[in-house]
Amino acid sequence: MVKFLNMKNYNMNADISLISNGDFGTNTYIIQSLISNKAVIIDPADGEKICSIIKSKELKPIYIINTHGHYDHISGNKHIKEKYDIPICIHPLDKDFLTDPGLNMSGFMAEEYTSPMADVLLFEGKTIKFDNVRIMIHETPGHTQGSISLSMSDMIFTGDLIFKQGIGRTDLPGGNIDAIINTLKTFYLKLKFENIIFPGHGEIGNKLEFDKIVQQFFYTY
After folding, report:
1. Mean per-residue pLDDT for 6-26?
2. What is the pTM of this model?
């Protein structure tokens, strides 16, 4: 089942679509400029579904951004890349996940999956710009070594760092419990109360709604 949520941020000149899709209910985000039809796609799961939405909204996709390299966040890459021939962007420490079914965990499922290789490598502080939209890259390792989060004004796209139900798993390929603890301390805890969290799965919400999970995590760990 595919679920949709649309919202506009006039301060950032962007329209954000949340599409819960794929076998694991991955949150794919499409960020579209309000002054043109250009858009970036974050973590596509079901490539065919995402392409149908792009077509219906008459968008011009310009980038695929993967917050990390696990299968449920890259499984739409191939379909979208073949249709639109746009760059795939990922952190260098996760680029090998794209083409290695063992690392991206599709090898543990019914069918092994390989994405096209990375075209653009994303580092801390890099900014993706189009029209008046600015998306800043933040290195947030822990769920994988190359996990990233994205910020756009007060909106933070966190991949699998944190959810309303818990912290991102660290027992999967690339995971490291010490790294995710450090990321929570140096990145997440420094976010402002007005920040809105857009996680890789589950519901979005303001930072206060996610703080309860972080406090419980530090208390029990």
Report:
1. 83
2. 0.95
